Amino acid sequence: MDGVGDSSTVRRILLGSLLRRLRESKNISMREAGYHIRATESKISRLETGKVSFKERDVEDLLTFYGVLDGKERDQVLDLVREANAQGWWHSFSEVLPSWFEAFIGLESAASVVRTYEVQFVPGLLQCPQYVDAVLSSNRAQSTTDLRRRIELRQRRQAALERDDAPILWVVLDEAALRRPIGGPEVMKAQIAYLIEQAERPNITIQLLPYSVGAHAAEGGAFTLLRFAEADLPDVVYLEHLTGAQYIERPEDVEQYARAMDRISVDALHPEATLEALKALLNP
Questions:
Q1: Using an 8 Å Cβ cutoff, are 34 and 43 in contact?
Q2: Which H/E stretch holds residue 116?
Q3: Does residue 4 carry a pLDDT above 90?
């Protein structure tokens, strides 16, 4: 299982950040850098934000252009290129993995803290097998093979919570997600029991946001805030839509979501009170 330090997604972002710092230290524009490797300014931007893979030849040429001539230093950067281009475990699920979701799994696998607010469903990382089957089976257009692969993908994501370097998972769950009978009463009973079980884990915090709170700071809907141990990696907010997703990286925008998450965490039931509420739902 890939650990934080082995994530190709993180390596791409770190490498891009390094190349940006080297370029800026020489007061070289993205347009000039692109021209030097027979590419566009847009490509340099995508490289520096870690959104595309790297060609060793391009990186070698950029290092020369930026004045990095020491052999040992160049080798370290090129080693990072090879690590950044390595495929993560999730690439083996490409046949059932939308391109816009692939980046999220890479970031989720590398995050040290995952904070999420969910309205409609129990978050994927906390779904019990029966609930996973009910959610994924709702797409009747898919084949049995695709369904099985999607279930396997969900299980691989959940396995990250059992790693030695498992991330902290902090979930604020709207009461609506538990009132919606996904799969029927028995499935929901199994799901609530699973949440109670998972809440006992030291790296998992679950808070229920009850209807009684009324209007709250996250009225815009579900979102996930990802935080990383690496100092060079900024926080990222993930918003999922019906046909795609949005990744918010501008610090001032991310800060707004962080504040909203903090406020709904205050409004939500304390973790111990959440456990009592879940037990009451399980045994009304």
A1: yes
A2: strand 113-118
A3: no
Three-state secondary structure call for residue 58: helix
> Tokens 């009463």 — which residue?
185
pTM to 2 decimals? 0.82
- Strands, sheet with 113-118, edge to edge from the N-terminal-most edge strand: 204-209, 168-174, 113-118, 223-227, 236-240, 245-248
Which residue matches tokens 């962080």? 258
Find all residues with CB under 8 Å of 169, minimum gap 6, and list them: 114, 116, 125, 126, 161, 203, 204, 205
Q: Which domains does the chain carry? A: 4-85 (1.10.260.40), 93-282 (3.30.870)
Q: What's the pLDDT band for 102 if we cut at 50, 70, 90?
A: confident
Q: Identify the helix (H) or strand (E) that includes residue 272.
A: helix 271-282
